[in-house]
Amino acid sequence: MRKILPTLFILLSGNAISNDDFSWLTPDGNKAPETENQKSKSGFGGWLVVTPDKDWEEKWNTPSENIPYFSEAKDVKLGEELTILPFFANPKLNESNYFEILCDIKVEKPDGTYSINEKNIPCAKGKLDISPLSVFLTQTVIKYIGEQGDPYGVWTVYFDMKDSIRGINIPLKTSFNLVK
Q1: Is domain 2-179 annotated with CATH 3.40.120.10?
Q2: pTM of the model
Q3: What's the rounded Cα separation, in Å, for the pair 32 and 26?
Q4: Fewer CB within 10 Å of terminal CB in the chain, N or C?
């Protein structure tokens, strides 16, 4: 397993600060490359992390100055558990500081069928009293446990995040492999 540090983002602008102009950054401050599981578009960012960490919630629920480290997994065996953590950043706020993120979620099994196929799931919404320029975890977290009868091979997770107020959709994709 590989340890990962959640990529941070900051505004990439000169003297003018705009919530519509930012990018995910690596821990050393360089612009992170766009990947299938981590993207930003028109000021909105989304990111999927597959972790075997059973204590991911404890790691996440710490003061904002603490940056959590999550192990990243690509393989899982029968009986083992993975959690897919969907993060987002910089949701557009309306005049009342309200935001809304909807998600389309599909989990495709190696045989081409779906264990999850849901559209317009409320993933996060509410009024923000802190800066939207923070990294947030959606309320929709996916748990997977390899069970007897599950097909072996690559399971693909499609997680489209929609910033309803901004009118932006970010299609994200990640995968893991159920091995014998």
Answers
A1: no
A2: 0.86
A3: 5
A4: C
